[in-house]
Amino acid sequence: MVDSYLVLYCGTDPELTAEELRARCARLQHAMAAGYAAALRERTRVEQEAIARSALSARSAAEIALHATESRFRAVFDGAAIGIGIADLDGRLVEINDTMTRMFGGVEAHVRSRNVSEWVHPEDGPHVWRLYEELVRGEREQYRVEKPYYRGDGTVLWTNLTVSLLRDAQGHPQYQLALMEDITERRLLHLRLRYEATHDALTGLPNRTLFFERLEKALAPAGEDGRFGLCYLDLDGFKAINDSLGHSTGDRLLVEVADRLQACATGPGEMVARLGGDEFVALTTSTGGERDATALADRILAALATPVGVDGRELTVRGSLGVVEGPAGERTAAEVLRSADITMYRAKSAGGNRFELADPEADARAITRHGLTTALPTALERGEFFIEYQPLVHLDDGTVHGAEALVRWSHPQHGVLGPDRFIPLAEDTGLIVPLGRWVLQEAVRQARSWQLDDPTTGTPLRINVNLSPTQLHHPRLVADTVDVLERSGLAPGALCLEVTESALIGADEDLLKPLRQLAEMGVDIALDDFGTGYSNLANLRRLPVSVLKLDRSFTRGMQQHPVDPVDLKIVEGIVSLAHSLELAVTVEGVETAAQAERLRELGCDTAQGWYYARPGAPDRIHSLVLADAV
Ligand code: C2E
Ligand code: MG
Ligand code: MG
User: How many CB atoms lie within 10 A of CB 77?
Assistant: First the structure.
């Protein structure tokens, strides 16, 4: 009944895997067994109290020879479902009932032959015999313990034992009355359920629950200098094995890995657990320092080095390990595990088949990085991104030529984040494609609305949008751009896509083709951050670019007095080369009037920088344009 109820209950969530289901059932069984045991204990307690009352009145009955009471006591004594024994204060048994005899294996002589004080068992709690001594000395009236005994055949009987002191009419201690409830079965059930709830069904290793218990114990503030070492292992490429060779092969591989890991950590204070999937941990509390923990990691890597034979195949297993070692009492189990997890990922991104040692700085970076990465997709859905525009200005007359769209993230916790904080993450996760498309759409729409607001200006305001390398490789780049332009009504000539120099280093014709198509339509392509990569200047000719954006590092040199003549020569050289290739030159990072003047003299066409305006809201650009027109 209980089982079918559990199956029904556990089976309601279709998201659960068979393994999670088993674990959940085990937890549930555990909880139910605990509740059942508590109810049983309560019933026994009531019964025991009734017996103790009868025994007490029987004692006075013996003294005043009231046979009726004596016989009532007899009836309870003999018929009780629990074992009852009466012994004197020296531990000699005076009376035992049949139930007690049965509990001990059915041979009364075996029970009677021994003094109570001889019934010791190695698993006796340390307090058991102290309580006994206190009772027989008359210092306490009663105690209650869980106590094991050996039966006649050597098997173990577990009992819930209540011992009460019986006093004579003058109040002197006279007998001790023991009431015993056999809890052997319940205890076995409890142990089995606990085993199931704390062990992994596939490999038999301790599971996450037990591992956390041990880790918490290992991390508890220790009196002396307790330390712990943790190796967090994730197999490299396990998913591929599972997907290509099937789950049963994957399972057998995991079992073999579990066996090998267990053989690596057999010392005292060492344990291996499976956290789930292909993630394992080895914990040691017998470490003297980092060297011991890394030695454990080395043993694990060595254990994985030999291929595993499954179904006649030799499977190569590799793993990445994150190792955390440190003093107890400083961090919580969750913190340690997170650090190990982050460190394991470092090992993985360094190529796998290795271990890395945790480092607090790398952890902190990874934690924010991780947090931002996971928040990125919803941020786009929730409209947390916005664009600031920074004007591009004609150096000759100072009029606004256009604006560069620079994306920002208004993060609910961290405030406004600049693109350097999240564009690389968006690149790694591929989110840059939808994000970049949104920026393009929004910026183009904005540019079109500037034009519509001010149809009198001669040349329409241009808009620069940054493209990241992943976007360049995206098959829909051209189609999406055309679509965005058509929907907004902006002429292709008013759009400039900025591509970094480094993204085009070594670009082959396939990569350049979409850019070439866009350029043929009239879209400008700018080479952003020019001068920071290692471009071969001669190479410029074959790129479909029409603008060079000179990196800020060149303009920075021009803030100094006197300006380094070599810097001047370089910029002059680049400008003349660019012009000879019919490329316009934009300079970034212009912060002073002196810089602007110098760059104008050198022949640069347009400039961008704080001297003119910091990136800001779109209406600021509009007012700058209107100011030009006056
Ligand atoms: P970038 O395209 O080279 O953009 C110019 C950066 O220089 C901007 O930083 C801008 O705020 C900053 N800047 C402008 N004038 C000055 C100045 O006078 N002095 C100094 N010190 N800095 C100045 P921001 O906005 O932090 O952008 C950083 C980079 O993020 C951009 O460099 C660009 O590569 C990337 N980015 C920005 N928006 C996007 C986007 O929508 N998509 C992609 N893929 N990348 C973007
Ligand atoms: Mg740019
Ligand atoms: Mg730039």
Answer: 19
Closest-CA residue, ligand 1 atom 44, reads 468
The one-character DSSP state at 139 is S
Q: What is the dihedral of CA 462, 468, 469, 474, to 10 degrees?
A: -80
Counting from 1 in the atom list of ligand 1, the atom nearest the Cα of 610 is: 18
Boundary residue ending a domain (56, 75, 94): 75
Distance CA 153, CA 626 (A): 104
- Is there a single domain that holds both residue 461 and residue 601? yes
Q: Which two tokens stand for residue 612?
A: 């003119």
- pLDDT category, 240, cuts 50, 70, 90? confident
Instruction: Say if residue 8's pLDDT is above 60.
Output: no
The answer on 35 and 129 residing in a single domain is no
172/312 same-domain check: no
Could you tell me which residue, 435 or 421, shows the higher pLDDT? 435
- Whose structure tokens read 């920071």? 532
pLDDT beyond 90 at 297: yes
Do 536 and 462 share a structural domain?
yes
Both 388 and 525 in a single domain? yes
pLDDT top residue among 293 and 72: 293
Number of independent structural domains in the chain: 4
d(CA 205, CA 264): 13
Say whether pLDDT at 136 is over 80: yes
Residue 468 near ligand 1, beta carbon < 6 Å: yes
Which of 35-49, 210-224, 388-402 is predicted least confidently? Answer: 35-49
Q: Are residues 67 and 89 in the same domain?
A: no
Q: Can you give the pLDDT at residue 410?
A: 95
The answer on 573 and 437 residing in a single domain is: yes
577, amino acid identity: L
CA distances from 628 to 282, 457, 611 (A): 69, 10, 16
Collapsing DSSP to helix, strand or coil, 134 comes out as helix
pLDDT of residue 610: 93
Please indicate, yes or no, whether residues 158 and 145 belong to a single structural domain of this protein: yes
Q: Is residue 87 part of a domain?
A: yes
CA–CA distance, 237 with 277 (Å, rounded to integer): 12
Q: Say if ligand 1 is within 6 A of residue 326 CB.
A: no
For ligand 1, atom 43, name the residue with the nearest CA.
466
Residue 609 CA to residue 57 CA, distance in Å, equals 100
Q: Which of 22-31, 47-56, 129-138 has the highest mean pLDDT?
A: 129-138
CA distance 383 to 23: 40
Q: What is the pLDDT of residue 225?
A: 73
User: Higher pLDDT residue, 612 or 539?
Assistant: 612
Atom of ligand 1 nearest to the CA of 427: 44
**Residue-wise pLDDT tens digits, 325-367:** 999 988 899 889 989 999 999 999 888 999 999 988 888 777 7
Q: How far apart are CA 22 and CA 12, in angstroms?
A: 13
Residue 486 lies in a domain: yes
**Range of 588's domain?**
375-629
- Which of 55, 75, 95 terminates a domain? The answer is 75
| Alpha-carbon gap, residue 123 to 119, rounded angstroms | 12
